[in-house]
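User:
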Amino acid sequence: MAEPIEPVAPPAVEPIETSTEVLPSTPVATAPAPPRKRRRWIGWVIALVVLVVLLVAGFFVADAYAKDYAKGYVRDQIIQVLKLDPTTKVDVDLGGGSVILQALRGSIDEVTVDVAELSFGDITGSAVITAAGVPLDGAQPVDKLGIVATVSEANVRKLASFMSGIELKTIELGEGVITASTEFNVLGFFVIPVSVDLVPSAVDGGISFDPETITLAGEDISVADLRASPEFAGIAGQFLQSQDFCVASSLPKALTITDVDVVGSNLVIAINGDGTALSGPGLSELGVCKQK
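Assistant: Predicted structure:
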């Protein structure tokens, strides 16, 4: 009997070693990035802004210079036209607008001049001159030109000889009138106080003083009654003998007195020169008062 065949064991299979080392990958070729565009317009904007700022600053500097020059020119003209002492304080205001822009339009919109001291013959006062639509061409007329002169009570007293034909003791301003007072000596025994309220007004280039109310020994009396009184008729005429005070001869002939009022304790004189050419003869020649 044959022996059984023993099973043959399969050959041993050696395990295959696996490596954990990672091999470098082959780089993948990529297209280069396009060149970055330069933003040149930003530089142009910055340059433009700087230029605008410089132009604006230059304009304001030039305008300030032009305004200072114009103020000096106006001041010199005022001194010349009104025959002022060169040392007189004269302040010029050209308003808040641009002088250069106004000049390009051919005229200055508004001019205000404060004159510290302006003389009208025997009296002196301050004045404010206002003008509107002042052309750069001196041969052309201004739209508006006015002067408001303010004379103090102390200066008005210098006009005593124009208010009465006799010596006055006191002169006071208030409540819209000028009150002049003196005393009447009756028969060498009685001294009676008398005062008159004078209303100033503009007339023929001057100022008139018209009697309104008379107070005699504390009693109001009319002008007609005072003139008709046997006791006072002789001196009433002299007391009420007022004269016009000429102002026109102290001003350029183109300027006209339009109104005179008592405001507070001051005499206020309004003068008009609308439509006057600044370089014309109307401002270079003095006026003349009409003779009565």
